[in-house]
Amino acid sequence: MFWRTISALGILFWAVMTGLLIRDTYFPEESRFAEVPPKLVFDLFLHHRDSASTLLLYKDDQKLGHSTFIVRKQPNNDPGPTLYDLQASGMVDGGAFAKDGSDLTWRIVGELDDGQQWRSMIFQTGWRPGHGRDSAREGVTASVGWRRGVDAPTFEVRQGGQVIMDNAKANSLLKGGTIPLGGLIGSSLSGGGALSSMAQVKAREGAMMLAGKRRKCYVLQMQFMGLYEIKVLFTEAGELARIDLPHGNHLLEPTIHGLGANITE
Question: Within a 10 A sphere around the Cβ of 173, how many other Cβ atoms?
Fold first, then answer.
């Protein structure tokens, strides 16, 4: 019995040390970054800024547009979760799509319980081909909205101000409305869990290069439908510094000089 205990402890010790070795070899930094409540990061940001933050959109070293980022905390005297309003909007130069003069605009408005659970979200985008006489008639706008407790998102597409597609028209095209739109999107988004399934918000400590030095930061991670991830970087003091977007695009705060190109992980 004694030797079995010694053998078991030896195996346990070996397993722990092997795990630590693998962690330090392949995940030297990220494994040590502690998770934090997203509301902590939002509160730090609000402590320093109560107006919009303006960021510039880049792909590599090419400037492609700009964006604004706003967070507000709604007054709450109830013991329930704190509600945060998040708004972001921007413009992408048409040159990014090889369509000079045809800029793309976008806007996101959302509500977050404790900065973590989405209560609602609306995404809007618009594209106008050039600035000629017929550009308004040919322009296309689209909006998609989610709200907690609703089985499927609502959407609308307009061209020249006229609705060319929405939920009702889509359902009428699907065998006379016998196939619900929510069923096409997936069962994981139904039953009132659409927002929590599509967009998850987490926060953790991190590190980034700033003015040539490695500095502590906070990383807000937003994952959409398990396909896209956006990382929002805040300095230790809560200043919005950078937003990493899919496909190598990123938004930079122009007043923070020497911001490194990547998160140190």
Answer: 11
Residues ≥6 apart with Cβ < 8 Å to 140: 126, 127, 128, 157, 158, 159
Residue 182 region, left (φ>0) first, then alpha (ψ -120 to 50), else beta?
alpha
User: In this predicted model, which residue has the larger pLDDT, 261 or 237?
Assistant: 237
Give me 161's structure tokens.
Answer: 């101000």
Contact 103, 94 (CB under 8 A): yes
CB atoms within 10 A of CB 128: 19
Q: 26: number of CA atoms within 13 Å, CB side?
A: 6
How confident is the model over 84-113, as pLDDT tens digits?
999 999 998 877 666 666 788 999 999 999
Rounded Cα distance, 240 and 76, in Å: 25
φ, ψ dihedrals at 58, nearest 5° = -130, 150
Record the pTM.
0.72
Going by C-alpha positions, the residue among 114, 180, 123 that lies closest to residue 146 is 123
